[in-house]
Design brief:
The chain has three helices and two strands. The protein has about 80 residues and is mainly alpha-helical. The chain is elongated and about 45 Å long. About 0% of the residues are buried.
């Protein structure tokens, strides 16, 4: 997976809105999964190997937070 480049002229408000909307829809869908199924299903990760759905969700939350912190630090005056 290689993300698309984002132009320096990109509308940052629109990008933020799109991210928040996507993450909110993702969170809503995840919240509907029964607890026991989070540990039953395995998903492939290119570097970490097979992860349970719960592990992938923890990883995703950490990963989003990590990138948020990188962006916050990069945008500090």
């Amino acid at each position: 997976f290689i993300p698309k480049n984002i132009s320096a002229d990109a509308d940052s408000e629109a990008l933020i809105h799109r991210f928040v909307d996507s993450y909110s829809r993702f969170s809503l869908k995840v919240s509907r999964w029964p607890e026991e199924k989070l540990d039953r299903y395995l998903l492939p990760h290119p570097l970490l190997g097979k992860l349970t759905l719960r592990e992938m969700l923890y990883f995703t939350a950490y990963h989003v937070s990590h990138h948020h912190n990188l962006m916050r630090d990069a945008l500090k005056p």
